[in-house]
Amino acid sequence: MPKPKPKAKKSMKSGLPNLDNATPSIIVDWLGAAREQIKELQQLEGYYKEALKARVDEGEDEIIGEKFSAEILEVAQLRIDTAAVKEEFGEEWWEDHCKLIEFQQIRTKRI
Question: Can you give the pTM of this predicted structure?
Fold first, then answer.
């Protein structure tokens, strides 16, 4: 008797849409709409973060809501100063030590 095939796992809580019969033009529309929603959500996230920062007391590092908690951290990052490296070692050295990567990009725009 053949073994039953395992069911595909869903990667999102609500599941992913079935694209079996979707045309490329429909997928482009969905992709564009998703990107617009992401942009709106990123703006909303920034708005909420600024509002939270304005209301948090100095030294307060944790806020508990009804569904989520937030931890406020002071973070430092070390980043390379490209202009300073080019000035110190020269443009040619910089180009010799850069790595070219190639990838496919899909751009969408509302028509």
Answer: 0.71
CB distance 56 to 72 below 8 Å:
yes
Mean pLDDT for the stretch of residues 36-53: 97
Question: In this structure, what DSSP letter does residue 55 have?
Answer: H
Determine, yes or no, domain membership for 54.
yes
Q: What burial class does residue 102 get, using C-beta atoms within 10 Å of its C-beta: 0-12 exposed, 13-18 middle, 19+ buried?
A: exposed
Per the structure, the count of domains in the chain is 1
The tokens describing 14, both together, are: 């609500």
Domain encompassing residue 45: 24-96
Say which amino acid occupies 3: K
Residue 60 structure tokens? 């307060």
| Residue 15 located in a structural domain | no
